[in-house]
Amino acid sequence: MDQKEEENEMSVRLDEIDRKILRELQGDASQSLDVIAKKVGSSKTPVWNRIRKLREAGVIGKNTMVMDAESLGFEACFFVLIRTSEHEADWQGKFLAALRARPEVMEAHRLAGEIDYILKVRVKNARAYDEFYQALISEVKIFNVTALLSMEEIKFTTELPL
C-alpha cells in the first residue's frame, strides 16, 4: 500500500467488500440491493448497512443520473481559463456566487500557477457561450479569460479507481 492509500485508509476504513460495493454503485447505482449483494458475495441487509454507513461517513454523496449532453442539444463544451487581479474575499464571494448561479458551469476549480480558475462550461453553441461570457464579465471583474473549445471528448467517467 502506498502513502496515498494509507492516508485514505486513515480517514475512512474500507475493506474489500466496501470497495466492491462502491465499484458496483459507481458502475450502476440503479442496481437492486439483491443484485449488488450477490455480486459482492454478501446478503442484502449487510450490504444495505454498509451503504448506509458509507453515506453517513460522506464516502457516498447524492445519487444522480448522467445525461448525454449532446443528445440534449448541448453540443459545445468549453474549458474557460480565468486569471484575476482580484484576490479579496468580497470579489471571490461574488465570483463564486456568479458561478453557482449559472447552470452552464459543470465544474469549477481554483488552481495553483498562472491560471487562477478553470471552468467546464456546457452550452448549445458558440453564441450561447458568448451570452454566458458577457453575463459573467458584467457581474464580476476578470483580468483575463481564455476559452478553449473541446473538439472531441476522448474520455469521460465519474468512477474513481477503487
Strand and helix layout:
Blueprint: H1 3-11, H2 16-27, H3 33-40, H4 44-56, E1 76-83, H5 89-100, E2 105-110, E3 117-123, H6 126-139, E4 144-149
Antiparallel strand pairs: 1-3, 1-4, 2-3
Protein name: Lrp/AsnC family transcriptional regulator
Pfam families: AsnC_trans_reg, HTH_24
Domain HTH asnC-type: 14-75
Report on the architecture of this protein.
The protein is of the alpha+beta class and 162 residues long. The protein has 2 domains: 3-56, Orthogonal Bundle (Arc Repressor Mutant, subunit A); 70-149, Alpha-Beta Plaits (2-Layer Sandwich). 42% of the residues lie in helices and 17% in strands. The protein has 6 helices and 4 strands. The protein has helices at residues 3-11, 16-27, 33-40, 44-56, 89-100, 126-139, and strands at residues 76-83, 105-110, 117-123, 144-149. The chain is elongated. The two termini are 13 Å apart. Pfam families: AsnC_trans_reg, HTH_24. InterPro entries: ArsR-like_HTH (IPR011991), AsnC-type_HTH_dom (IPR000485), Dimeric_a/b-barrel (IPR011008), Tscrpt_reg_AsnC-like (IPR019888), Tscrpt_reg_AsnC/Lrp_C (IPR019887), WH-like_DNA-bd_sf (IPR036388), WH_DNA-bd_sf (IPR036390). Residues 14-75 form the HTH asnC-type domain. This is Lrp/AsnC family transcriptional regulator.
